[in-house]
Design a protein that fits this description.
The structure is a homodimer.
Chain A lengths: L3 H13 L2 H8 L3 H15 L4 E4 L2 E4 L1 H28 L4 E7 L8 H12 L3 E7 L2 H10 L4 E4 L9 E16 L25 E5 L5 H13 L5 E6 L2 H9 L5 E4 L10 E5 L7 E9 L5 H25 L4
Parallel strand pairs in A: 3-4, 3-5, 7-8
Antiparallel strand pairs in A: 1-2, 5-11, 6-9, 6-10, 6-11
Helix pairs in contact in A: 1-2, 1-4
Chain B binds a DNA duplex (30 and 30 nucleotides) through helix 3.
DNA sequence: ACATGGCATATAAATATCATATGGATAATG
DNA sequence: CATTATCCATATGATATTTATATGCCATGT
């Protein structure tokens, strides 16, 4: 097999039409270049040049090779660049998983947009799954990073980064006695114990245990055990069931932006234990450079967002 | 610069996921293969594999390279094949020139068709020029082979192959006294001296001196000097001028197939000196393999045609 | 005729590649 | 828990390939 050097040498001679000048340009002497050209011709068993007293002239076969040789060299240069970009995390693919509630948080679309601008050669693959599947996916390396709402255990080679902590709000059917009257503002925050006798609709525990347990625990702290009317497979489904009048639920702040027919929202008296975290989980080691870039950017953006918010709340810090 | 060998080695390891087995498959020992992989990684300044106790696993950068490496190797194989085909004359381009009268000879379309079937990767470029330009073109290597009607001098590095020798016929205006009456067959061949007083229309001498001189010479042999009424720039134009009643002309047999309004044809008493040769001229040396193939096929086909004709005329030879 | 430009050949040195032998690390097994 | 097996990395000497120097040969142009 002939190699790249042969092609480089060949191209130089083809373009100069002169071994001596080509050798000069390649930084070697004329005899070895003549030899290498001859070796290439023997390897291909084809005459590539006609030797003329004034220099070398391509044969038809040589001209045919010239075209391909250029392409191949170009292709190699491109391959090299691609490899290097990939290694720097500037090219590749990152599989981002998230639970059903995560994409309503404005952080995600913003991050995706920013990442796409900063790393245009990295494609993002988005996958929605339950928390359990997400963690499995991280382990199995089918997912590179996952937005989850529960505090996934850091053990087992996963690391978890806090992105945001949101307060929860209450979602009630429109016609519920505790629902705010439309048009009237400034309803005071509800206390959790006001909901002691209400049927609760919760996100199915086995899909995402974090939320479920969080709410149960908060209710217990508030002095009651909630009555579970129904479990829903996705966080949004709980709101649909609320709309149907089957009960009430608690949901993180960011879900408030979607205005569902028949659902009324009320804030909740703050309970430091009852918050909806948004976390980004990834493998502690073994991630691709592109995935690393993604997580880095997510953390930086989360810090920036948090700083901006604190600054906004406390302007003369 | 890394070369093809590196890529071959890399691909083998990438596909086996195991240096030892890859080495075996490549027909070398494990240590040098390990070394070459390492060398490639250093050259690219990128880690291509993760070393695991069970073997080697591609990194993202490695995966990126794997794709390109396959393409590049495939491209090299294709380039090699193309060069070899070109050298064998099975790929390329042949520039075929011809004078204006040549394409009416059935030999040309037949040859073009046969050649296209036999050498599908060779493209033919057809160019019509005067004989002078054709010869210049052959010299300047802008034309590879040329069909001419005159016996081009073999000297000056050109070789000429006889393709066909056609008798000439007389073209007369429809209303000429010598013109055959339509509907009546079997007009005897005219003798050249019958045309002694007719105005002649001839193919312009400087465009293609062969024909011109041939006719003048034949007339001289027949005992008269023809009266040149007009010269035409192309052989077909002479027939058009005949149609316009400006005179008579002589043309090779194959032109008889085009039936022009106002032109009548009569055969001519055979004169061994007054024939229209169809010749194929090419450079004696220095032709591409594809051009060589073309000329070879033309000569073979000419021989076959001649044999068939002789056989047809003299069936019990 | 002679000088010039340019490729080919010969030989020796430098470099790259390979095989053999061996070390070290991790996972599977008794 | 020690042992074995597997597999990659390193060291070193051998071999092959590539390069440089010196020189020859041929055609061209003056």
């Amino acid at each position: 097999m002939f190699d790249i050097r042969h092609l480089r040498y060949f191209l130089a001679v083809a373009e100069e039409g002169n071994v001596t000048r080509a050798a000069e340009q390649l930084g070697l002497q004329q005899p070895p270049l003549s030899q290498q050209i001859k070796a290439l011709e023997q390897e291909l068993d084809v005459q590539l040049f006609r030797r003329k007293p004034r220099g070398m002239e391509l044969t038809d076969a040589g001209r045919a090779l010239q075209v391909d040789a250029k392409h191949i060299l170009g292709h190699m240069a491109k391959a090299r660049a691609k490899v290097e970009r990939t290694a720097r995390g500037e090219q590749g693919n990152v599989v981002v998983g998230f639970t059903s509630s995560a994409p309503f948080h404005p952080f995600l679309p913003r991050l995706f947009r920013l990442f796409g601008e900063r790393f245009p050669h990295v494609s993002l693959t988005l996958e929605e799954h339950g928390t359990t599947e997400l963690v499995e996916g991280l382990r199995a390396e089918t997912i590179d990073a996952a937005f989850v709402r529960s505090p996934v255990a850091e053990s087992h080679g996963l690391s978890v980064h806090a992105i945001s902590i949101e307060p929860m709000f209450v979602a009630l059917p429109n016609n519920h006695p505790l629902a705010p009257v439309p048009g009237v503002d400034n309803f005071p925050p509800l206390a959790l114990e006001d909901l002691a006798d209400e049927p609760f609709i919760l996100y199915r525990r086995h899909t995402g245990p974090g939320f479920y347990d969080l709410i149960i625990a908060a209710c217990n702290r508030a002095g009651f055990t909630p009555k579970i009317a129904q479990e829903a497979p996705r966080l949004i489904s709980t709101l649909n069931l609320v709309a149907a009048g089957l009960g009430v639920t608690l949901a993180p702040e960011s879900l408030r932006s979607l205005q569902l027919e028949g659902v009324a929202y009320r804030s909740l008296k703050s309970d430091p234990g009852l918050t909806a975290p948004l976390n980004l989980a990834c493998r502690a080691v073994d991630h691709s450079a592109a995935a690393r870039r993604f997580v880095e950017m997510a953390r930086a953006e989360a810090r920036a967002t948090k700083a901006a918010k604190e600054d906004g709340g406390n302007n003369n810090a």
